[in-house]
């Protein structure tokens, strides 16, 4: 099921179209990008690699940036091949990233299998919470920061890899402080990712998602409002 939305600016009439797009690489290593439909979803599930395309905007340098987020990858294609094919798709500015489930061993570099996936949070007293649930459904308590934990094990190196991905940082702690706190709760903190925002590859400014009530990228005065929204499959 896909969503196609048309926005317009209530001041200057600027129009913006947004749709839920996906991409996939077929078994002949050709890349395709299309709206998410039953048909394209089927093709992407049989593909060598696939993922979603998310559109961002940079108010600082007035560029649209496309985030190709790889969520599936078979062992018959390498990360480097995927990056090359996505880069060659068109001239748009892109950020290519791999879902946090993917991890390579930091010692021998081979892909390591995901063993466990949990949610974690730290409260303002420094207490550490970890739950099996994939979603942060801790009680409505205020946390300093929270996110997802992924555990991996490399059979060749006999080493555990712990990855913490920060999704919310309510206390606005800086990276080194977060790392220090996490170190107190794991004997072996190996990977740490701050995922709270994406930055523009062009100017390093924080990227924004344009949607309802966003400031118009053209006149910078009006707000975007939904003019038309269609669901399709
Ligand atoms: Zn290894
Ligand atoms: Zn920029
Ligand atoms: Zn406008």
Index terms:
single chain; 233 residues; mainly beta; 2 domains; five-stranded mixed beta sheet; 13 strands; 42% strand; binds zinc ion
List the helices and strands and how they pair.
Elements: E1 2-9, E2 15-19, E3 21-25, E4 31-35, H1 38-45, E5 49-58, E6 63-73, H2 79-87, E7 93-98, E8 114-123, E9 128-131, E10 143-154, E11 159-168, H3 175-185, E12 191-194, E13 224-232
Parallel strand pairs: 6-7, 11-12
Antiparallel strand pairs: 1-2, 1-13, 3-4, 3-5, 5-6, 8-9, 8-10, 10-11
The chain binds zinc ion (3 copies).
Report on this structure.
This protein is mainly beta and 233 residues long. It folds into two domains: 1-100 and 198-233, no CATH class; 104-194, no CATH class. Helices cover 12% and strands 42% of the residues. The protein is built from three helices and 13 strands. A five-stranded mixed β-sheet has the order 4-3-5-6-7, sandwiched between helices. It is globular, with a radius of gyration of 20 Å. The N and C termini lie close together (5 Å). The model has no long low-confidence stretch (mean pLDDT 91). The structure holds zinc ion (ZN) (3 copies). Residues 105, 107-108, 110, 154, 156-157 line the site of one zinc ion.
């Amino acid at each position: 099921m896909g969503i196609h939305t048309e926005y317009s600016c209530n001041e200057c009439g600027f129009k913006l179209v947004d749709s839920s797009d996906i991409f996939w690489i077929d078994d002949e290593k050709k890349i395709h990008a299309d709206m998410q439909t039953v048909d394209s979803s089927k093709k992407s599930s049989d593909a060598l690699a696939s993922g979603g395309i998310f559109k961002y905007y940079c108010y600082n340098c007035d560029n649209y940036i496309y985030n190709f987020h790889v969520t599936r990858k078979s062992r018959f294609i390498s990360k480097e091949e995927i990056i090359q094919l996505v880069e060659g798709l068109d001239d748009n500015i892109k950020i290519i990233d791999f879902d946090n489930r993917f991890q390579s061993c930091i010692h021998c570099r081979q892909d390591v299998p995901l063993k466990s996936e949990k949610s974690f949070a730290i409260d303002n007293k420094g207490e550490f919470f970890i739950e099996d649930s994939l979603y942060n459904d801790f009680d409505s308590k205020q946390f300093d920061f929270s996110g997802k934990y992924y555990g991996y094990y490399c059979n060749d190196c006999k080493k555990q890899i712990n990855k913490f991905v920060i999704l919310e940082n309510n206390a606005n702690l800086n990276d080194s402080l977060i790392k220090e706190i996490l170190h107190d709760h794991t004997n072996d903190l190996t990977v740490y990712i701050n995922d709270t925002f994406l930055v523009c590859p062009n100017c390093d400014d924080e990227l924004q998602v344009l949607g309802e009530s966003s400031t118009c990228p053209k006149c910078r005065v009006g707000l975007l409002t939904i003019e038309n929204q269609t669901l399709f499959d």
